[in-house]
Amino acid sequence: MGTDLGKALEKMLRRFKLKDRYEETKTLEDWDNLVGETIAAHTSPRKIEKGKLFIEVDSPSWRNQLLFQKDYIKKQINQKMDKNLIKEIILR
Fold it and tell me: Mind listing the pLDDT tens digit for each residue in 66-90?
């Protein structure tokens, strides 16, 4: 009659309203896997606030290129996280 540890953790996160924050942190930590090596090599995710993902880009040319890929990046993250976590991407 034991409870699965993952289910217990998820229940605790929901109870203390930490689930969204946990998923945001997981997104930042798993950046390379979510966006791929090429994009990850030129970007650093900084924070997620109210559905906005703030990304630091290493050069103006990469920033310009990523302006056209914002929807793709958002879609990739939301699909892999199985949640509509990111609503907007801000490039800096």
Answer: 999 999 999 999 998 888 999 999 9
Residue pair 60/76 in contact by the 8 Å Cβ criterion: no
Question: Can you give the pTM of this predicted structure?
Answer: 0.81
> CATH number for the 17-91 domain, one of 3.30.300.180, 3.40.50.620, 3.30.70.100, 3.40.50.720?
3.30.300.180
Domain coordinates of the chain in residue numbers?
A: 17-91
